Protein backbone atom coordinates (compact mmCIF):
# COMPACT_ATOMS: atom_id res chain seq x y z
CA UNK A 1 0.00 0.00 0.00
CA UNK A 2 2.86 2.34 0.92
CA UNK A 3 4.56 1.57 -2.39
CA UNK A 4 1.38 2.40 -4.27
CA UNK A 5 1.14 5.80 -2.54
CA UNK A 6 4.76 6.53 -3.40
CA UNK A 7 4.15 5.64 -7.05
CA UNK A 8 1.08 7.88 -7.13
CA UNK A 9 3.03 10.79 -5.69
CA UNK A 10 5.67 10.35 -8.40
CA UNK A 11 3.14 10.00 -11.22
CA UNK A 12 0.88 12.96 -10.39
CA UNK A 13 3.45 15.70 -11.06
CA UNK A 14 4.32 14.10 -14.38
CA UNK A 15 0.64 13.97 -15.38
CA UNK A 16 0.14 17.58 -14.34
CA UNK A 17 3.20 18.68 -16.31
CA UNK A 18 2.05 16.77 -19.38
CA UNK A 19 -1.42 18.31 -19.12
CA UNK A 20 0.03 21.79 -18.86
CA UNK A 21 2.12 21.20 -21.96
CA UNK A 22 -0.94 20.02 -23.86
CA UNK A 23 -3.19 22.88 -22.69
CA UNK A 24 -4.83 24.89 -25.46
CA UNK A 25 -4.41 28.65 -25.53
CA UNK A 26 -7.29 30.98 -26.32
CA UNK A 27 -7.43 34.40 -27.94
CA UNK A 28 -10.49 36.63 -28.19
CA UNK A 29 -10.38 39.41 -30.79
CA UNK A 30 -12.66 42.43 -30.99
CA UNK A 31 -12.50 44.01 -34.45
CA UNK A 32 -14.30 46.52 -36.63
CA UNK A 33 -16.37 45.19 -39.53
CA UNK A 34 -14.01 46.48 -42.22
CA UNK A 35 -11.36 43.83 -41.47
CA UNK A 36 -13.78 40.90 -41.36
CA UNK A 37 -12.61 39.09 -44.52
CA UNK A 38 -8.83 39.37 -44.09
CA UNK A 39 -8.96 38.63 -40.38
CA UNK A 40 -10.88 35.40 -40.90
CA UNK A 41 -8.38 34.27 -43.55
CA UNK A 42 -5.42 35.25 -41.36
CA UNK A 43 -6.89 33.38 -38.38
CA UNK A 44 -7.35 30.29 -40.54
CA UNK A 45 -3.71 30.47 -41.69
CA UNK A 46 -2.47 31.13 -38.13
CA UNK A 47 -4.32 28.12 -36.74
CA UNK A 48 -2.72 25.85 -39.31
CA UNK A 49 0.64 26.77 -37.82
CA UNK A 50 -0.68 26.91 -34.24
CA UNK A 51 -3.34 24.19 -33.99
CA UNK A 52 -3.56 24.40 -30.19
CA UNK A 53 -4.62 28.05 -30.26
CA UNK A 54 -8.38 28.66 -30.17
CA UNK A 55 -9.41 32.06 -31.53
CA UNK A 56 -12.77 33.73 -31.08
CA UNK A 57 -13.67 36.96 -32.86
CA UNK A 58 -16.50 39.49 -32.76
CA UNK A 59 -17.03 42.31 -35.25
CA UNK A 60 -18.58 45.63 -34.24
CA UNK A 61 -18.70 49.28 -35.39
CA UNK A 62 -15.76 51.50 -34.44
CA UNK A 63 -17.73 53.40 -31.81
CA UNK A 64 -18.92 50.23 -30.10
CA UNK A 65 -15.41 48.76 -30.16
CA UNK A 66 -14.04 51.90 -28.54
CA UNK A 67 -16.76 52.08 -25.88
CA UNK A 68 -16.36 48.45 -24.84
CA UNK A 69 -12.59 48.71 -24.41
CA UNK A 70 -12.68 52.15 -22.84
CA UNK A 71 -15.37 51.03 -20.38
CA UNK A 72 -13.60 47.75 -19.55
CA UNK A 73 -16.66 45.89 -20.88
CA UNK A 74 -14.85 43.60 -23.33
CA UNK A 75 -13.34 40.17 -22.69
CA UNK A 76 -11.08 40.57 -25.74
CA UNK A 77 -7.33 40.04 -25.59
CA UNK A 78 -6.76 41.89 -28.86
CA UNK A 79 -8.53 44.73 -30.65
CA UNK A 80 -8.39 45.97 -34.24
CA UNK A 81 -9.42 49.57 -34.86
CA UNK A 82 -8.95 52.37 -37.34
CA UNK A 83 -6.43 55.05 -36.42
CA UNK A 84 -8.42 57.92 -34.96
CA UNK A 85 -8.94 59.98 -31.81
CA UNK A 86 -10.62 56.91 -30.34
CA UNK A 87 -7.52 54.78 -30.82
CA UNK A 88 -5.24 57.56 -29.58
CA UNK A 89 -7.32 57.92 -26.43
CA UNK A 90 -7.15 54.18 -25.69
CA UNK A 91 -3.36 54.21 -26.07
CA UNK A 92 -2.92 57.39 -24.03
CA UNK A 93 -5.03 55.98 -21.18
CA UNK A 94 -3.21 52.62 -21.29
CA UNK A 95 -6.33 50.75 -22.37
CA UNK A 96 -4.44 49.41 -25.40
CA UNK A 97 -0.74 48.69 -25.86
CA UNK A 98 1.77 47.03 -28.21
CA UNK A 99 -0.08 48.63 -31.14
CA UNK A 100 1.07 47.79 -34.67
CA UNK A 101 -0.27 48.33 -38.18
CA UNK A 102 -2.75 45.74 -39.45
CA UNK A 103 -3.34 47.24 -42.92
CA UNK A 104 -4.13 50.40 -44.89
CA UNK A 105 -7.01 51.41 -47.16
CA UNK A 106 -8.37 53.94 -49.68
CA UNK A 107 -11.71 55.70 -50.10
CA UNK A 108 -13.70 55.27 -53.30
CA UNK A 109 -16.91 56.66 -54.73
CA UNK A 110 -18.85 53.64 -56.00
CA UNK A 111 -22.13 53.34 -57.83
CA UNK A 112 -24.65 50.68 -58.68
CA UNK A 113 -24.28 49.00 -62.04
CA UNK A 114 -27.09 51.28 -63.29
CA UNK A 115 -25.50 54.53 -62.06
CA UNK A 116 -24.14 57.32 -64.21
CA UNK A 117 -20.36 57.19 -64.15
CA UNK A 118 -19.04 59.85 -66.52
CA UNK A 119 -17.01 62.01 -64.11
CA UNK A 120 -13.33 62.81 -64.30
CA UNK A 121 -12.78 65.07 -61.28
CA UNK A 122 -14.15 65.58 -57.78
CA UNK A 123 -15.87 68.80 -58.89
CA UNK A 124 -18.25 66.68 -61.00
CA UNK A 125 -19.47 64.70 -57.97
CA UNK A 126 -22.43 66.98 -57.06
CA UNK A 127 -23.87 66.49 -60.57
CA UNK A 128 -24.46 62.83 -59.72
CA UNK A 129 -26.94 63.59 -56.97
CA UNK A 130 -29.53 65.66 -58.74
CA UNK A 131 -31.97 62.76 -58.48
CA UNK A 132 -29.95 60.29 -56.40
CA UNK A 133 -28.70 59.85 -52.85
CA UNK A 134 -25.21 59.27 -51.46
CA UNK A 135 -24.70 56.45 -48.96
CA UNK A 136 -22.32 57.25 -46.09
CA UNK A 137 -21.38 55.37 -42.94
CA UNK A 138 -22.86 56.96 -39.83
CA UNK A 139 -20.08 59.22 -38.46
CA UNK A 140 -21.43 58.83 -34.92
CA UNK A 141 -20.30 55.21 -34.83
CA UNK A 142 -17.85 54.85 -37.74
CA UNK A 143 -14.52 56.55 -38.35
CA UNK A 144 -15.05 56.06 -42.10
CA UNK A 145 -18.15 58.24 -41.90
CA UNK A 146 -16.13 61.03 -40.29
CA UNK A 147 -13.46 60.67 -42.96
CA UNK A 148 -16.08 60.88 -45.69
CA UNK A 149 -17.59 64.11 -44.36
CA UNK A 150 -14.10 65.59 -43.94
CA UNK A 151 -13.33 64.62 -47.54
CA UNK A 152 -16.47 66.31 -48.89
CA UNK A 153 -15.61 69.45 -46.91
CA UNK A 154 -12.01 69.31 -48.16
CA UNK A 155 -13.31 69.61 -51.72
CA UNK A 156 -15.90 72.25 -50.72
CA UNK A 157 -18.75 70.12 -52.03
CA UNK A 158 -20.34 69.12 -48.70
CA UNK A 159 -22.92 71.94 -48.79
CA UNK A 160 -23.94 70.89 -52.30
CA UNK A 161 -24.59 67.26 -51.37
CA UNK A 162 -25.49 67.26 -47.65
CA UNK A 163 -29.23 67.04 -48.37
CA UNK A 164 -28.59 63.96 -50.51
CA UNK A 165 -26.65 62.03 -47.87
CA UNK A 166 -28.22 58.94 -46.32
CA UNK A 167 -26.44 57.41 -43.35
CA UNK A 168 -26.06 53.68 -42.68
CA UNK A 169 -24.82 51.97 -39.50
CA UNK A 170 -21.90 49.99 -40.98
CA UNK A 171 -19.66 49.88 -44.04
CA UNK A 172 -21.28 46.65 -45.18
CA UNK A 173 -24.80 48.05 -44.86
CA UNK A 174 -23.73 51.07 -46.92
CA UNK A 175 -22.38 48.74 -49.60
CA UNK A 176 -25.56 46.66 -49.54
CA UNK A 177 -27.63 49.82 -50.01
CA UNK A 178 -25.84 50.42 -53.32
CA UNK A 179 -26.10 46.77 -54.34
CA UNK A 180 -29.88 46.84 -53.82
CA UNK A 181 -30.28 50.34 -55.36
CA UNK A 182 -31.61 51.94 -52.18
CA UNK A 183 -28.98 54.54 -53.05
CA UNK A 184 -27.14 54.72 -56.34
CA UNK A 185 -23.84 55.95 -54.89
CA UNK A 186 -21.72 55.59 -51.76
CA UNK A 187 -18.27 56.45 -50.46
CA UNK A 188 -16.69 53.33 -48.99
CA UNK A 189 -13.35 51.62 -48.50
CA UNK A 190 -11.58 50.14 -51.50
CA UNK A 191 -11.47 46.75 -49.80
CA UNK A 192 -15.26 46.68 -49.36
CA UNK A 193 -15.83 47.67 -52.99
CA UNK A 194 -13.70 44.73 -54.13
CA UNK A 195 -15.99 42.26 -52.34
CA UNK A 196 -18.96 43.04 -54.59
CA UNK A 197 -19.72 42.37 -58.27
CA UNK A 198 -22.78 44.61 -58.03
CA UNK A 199 -21.00 47.95 -57.69
CA UNK A 200 -18.52 49.80 -59.87
CA UNK A 201 -15.85 52.34 -59.02
CA UNK A 202 -16.80 55.85 -60.12
CA UNK A 203 -13.91 57.80 -58.65
CA UNK A 204 -10.82 57.07 -56.55
CA UNK A 205 -10.08 59.90 -54.14
CA UNK A 206 -6.46 61.05 -53.91
CA UNK A 207 -4.97 60.08 -50.56
CA UNK A 208 -4.09 63.68 -49.72
CA UNK A 209 -7.81 64.51 -49.53
CA UNK A 210 -8.38 62.59 -46.29
CA UNK A 211 -6.48 61.43 -43.23
CA UNK A 212 -4.48 58.21 -43.74
CA UNK A 213 -6.65 55.12 -43.29
CA UNK A 214 -4.60 52.81 -41.12
CA UNK A 215 -6.04 49.83 -39.27
CA UNK A 216 -4.14 48.95 -36.10
CA UNK A 217 -4.06 45.91 -33.84
CA UNK A 218 -3.16 46.10 -30.16
CA UNK A 219 -3.33 44.23 -26.88
CA UNK A 220 -6.12 45.18 -24.47
CA UNK A 221 -4.58 46.61 -21.30
CA UNK A 222 -5.26 43.81 -18.83
CA UNK A 223 -3.57 41.26 -21.11
CA UNK A 224 0.14 40.73 -21.63
CA UNK A 225 0.06 37.23 -22.99
CA UNK A 226 2.83 35.93 -25.22
CA UNK A 227 0.20 34.45 -27.54
CA UNK A 228 -1.19 37.98 -28.13
CA UNK A 229 2.26 39.21 -29.13
CA UNK A 230 2.78 36.13 -31.27
CA UNK A 231 -0.45 36.80 -33.21
CA UNK A 232 0.42 40.48 -33.70
CA UNK A 233 3.85 39.51 -35.02
CA UNK A 234 2.20 37.03 -37.38
CA UNK A 235 0.32 39.93 -39.01
CA UNK A 236 3.70 41.27 -40.15
CA UNK A 237 4.73 38.02 -41.86
CA UNK A 238 4.78 37.54 -45.64
CA UNK A 239 1.95 35.01 -45.40
CA UNK A 240 -0.41 37.40 -43.62
CA UNK A 241 0.61 40.36 -45.79
CA UNK A 242 -0.13 38.32 -48.92
CA UNK A 243 -3.67 37.73 -47.63
CA UNK A 244 -4.12 41.47 -47.04
CA UNK A 245 -2.76 42.30 -50.51
CA UNK A 246 -5.13 39.86 -52.18
CA UNK A 247 -8.12 41.56 -50.53
CA UNK A 248 -7.08 45.07 -51.55
CA UNK A 249 -5.35 46.35 -48.43
CA UNK A 250 -2.33 48.54 -49.01
Structure description:
By secondary structure, the chain is α/β, with parallel strands linked by helices. It has two domains: about 25-105 and about 215-245, D-Maltodextrin-Binding Protein, domain 2 (3-Layer(aba) Sandwich), CATH 3.40.190; about 105-205, D-Maltodextrin-Binding Protein, domain 2. It is built from ten helices and ten strands. The protein has helices at about 1-20, 35-50, 60-70, 85-90, 145-155, 160, 170-180, 190-195, 225-235, 240-245; strands at about 25-30, 55-60, 80, 95-105, 105-110, 135, 165-170, 185-190, 200-205, 215-220. The strands form two sheets. It has a five-stranded mixed sheet with strand order 2-1-3-10-4, sandwiched between helices. Strands 7-6-8-5-9 form a five-stranded mixed sheet, with helices on both faces. β1, α2 (about 35-50) and β2 (about 55-60) form a beta-alpha-beta unit. α2 (about 35-50) packs antiparallel against α10. It is elongated, with a radius of gyration of 23 Å. The termini are far apart. Residues about 5-20 have low confidence and may be disordered.
The CATH topology of the largest domain comes to: D-Maltodextrin-Binding Protein, domain 2
Integer average pLDDT: 86
Top-tier CATH class of the largest domain: Alpha Beta
Count of individual helical segments: 10
- The rounded Rg comes to 23 Å
Lateral strand order in the biggest sheet: 2-1-3-10-4
The second-level CATH architecture of the largest domain is: 3-Layer(aba) Sandwich
- The end-to-end distance, rounded to whole angstroms, is 69 Å
How is the biggest beta sheet arranged?
A: 5 strands, mixed
General form: elongated
Give the ordered list of helices and strands.
HEHEHEHEEEHHEHEHEEHH
Secondary-structure-based class equals alpha/beta
Count of discrete domains: 2
Low-confidence stretches: 4-22
> Quick one: CATH superfamily of the largest domain?
Periplasmic binding protein-like II
> Percent helix among the residues?
40-55%
Please tally the β strands and state the result: 10
**Strand share of the residues?**
25-35%
Amino acid sequence: MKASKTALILILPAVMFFSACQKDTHLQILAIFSVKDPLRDIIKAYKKENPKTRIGVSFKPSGTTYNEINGDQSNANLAIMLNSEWLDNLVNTNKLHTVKTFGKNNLLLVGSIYAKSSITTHSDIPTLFVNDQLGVNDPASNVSGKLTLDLLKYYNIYDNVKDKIRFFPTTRSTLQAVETSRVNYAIIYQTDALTSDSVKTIYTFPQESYAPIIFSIGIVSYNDDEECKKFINYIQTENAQAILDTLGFL
